[in-house]
Write a structure and sequence with these properties.
0% of the residues lie in helices and 45% in strands. It is mainly β and 162 residues long. Strands 5, 6, 7, 8, 9, 10, 11, 12 and 13 form a nine-stranded mixed sheet that branches. A two-stranded antiparallel sheet has the order 1-4. A two-stranded antiparallel sheet has the order 2-3. Strand 11 and strand 12 form a beta hairpin.
Length: 162
């Protein structure tokens, strides 16, 4: 992007599909793009809070007994192209954020037929394991590209197992 004579610049960008919450925004300056480019200047990071319209709706309720199958639908839109499937994950929130969360269940999705440039509309389900201890969990949904890389994520939703 061009820099003004006074050294100032501005840019705009669309925030990709990601869960809301605190994150860090960074910016770098460098020479014209080339294979041997090095960053000339790294700007101080800025703490920002991301909000997202991409959420999950769960039926019959966010409170469930072990063995219950939860029906999951997206709110705010389907997955961006070229997503090809959805990964639903029920995981524990008992681990500190610096530790990997423990996955307790994965769910299945049903998506419509689509071409590589279409939004993936979907519904899904996940069954709360019958041996799962009562407590607080999170249900997340990730849009996944054909090679297994995440393309976007919905804001996780709290699930209480009683």
């Amino acid at each position: 992007m061009p820099v003004g004579a006074d050294g100032q610049w501005t840019t705009t960008s669309t925030v990709p599909m990601l869960p809301g919450g605190p994150t860090i925004l960074t910016a770098y300056c460098g020479p014209e793009a080339s294979a041997s480019s090095k960053w000339v200047f790294v700007y101080p990071s800025v703490h920002v809070t991301v909000t997202t319209p991409f959420e999950l709706s769960v039926l019959p309720s966010n409170t469930a007994s072990p063995g219950t199958t939860l029906s999951v639908t997206p709110v705010g839109g389907g997955c961006p192209p070229p997503s090809t499937w959805i990964q639903l994950t029920l995981y524990t929130t008992s681990q500190p954020r610096t530790q990997p969360q423990i996955e307790v269940a994965q769910g299945a999705t049903n998506n419509t037929g689509l071409s590589a440039d279409q939004t993936l509309d979907w519904t899904g389900s996940v069954t709360v394991p019958s041996s799962l201890a009562p407590g607080q969990y999170q249900l997340g949904a990730d849009c996944v590209y054909s090679r297994g890389a995440p393309k976007g994520s919905y804001a996780p939703i709290a699930i209480t197992v009683k």
